[in-house]
Amino acid sequence: VLLFWGFANGYAPSFVWSDNEVWFCTIFFAIFMWESLHFYAVHRFLHWPTLYKYVHSLHHRSINPISWTGISMHPVEHLLYFSSVLVHFFVPTHPIHVLFHMLAMTIGAMIGHTGFDGFFINNKNRVALGHFHHQLHHRYFECNYGTIELPCDVWFDSFHDGRLPSYSSRSRAFRAMDELQVSFALPG
Q: What pLDDT, in 10s, does the model give residues 165-187?
């Protein structure tokens, strides 16, 4: 609402399709890249011990997430997560970009928590639906903070692909958790 008020009253820079068709279309792709960078930064911040304890732990109560987990957040986390749209106060966009941005963030959070990557149709055509990448984050907590649109987790040494061991050298906690899970899984 604040952004739409800003567009209507000249406080948010805007333009229309006829001003620059290429830029108008490019912004839709740029929104995914910006949202991915923003999400990684905010998500790493939410794992700071104090914020995790009082704010983000609510979201992480779901070890095996479902779609509704994606938007199950503390109000402070909602403010931080949706602050990504504030970029529209600085970058000239159109109100349709703001709607797209909000829908992509909301639906994307739900899709990212489906708990699997996709499914097969007629045993051939795979339809991508979720992010196993984020499923691993809910399992291990200290990895895969970002989305799959940008490789921020690879860049910042927090990627885990689910294999044992397949994590960075900084993560002793991964090894301890994996060894514990393997010891329970192996007979004898």
A: 544 544 555 444 444 444 334 44
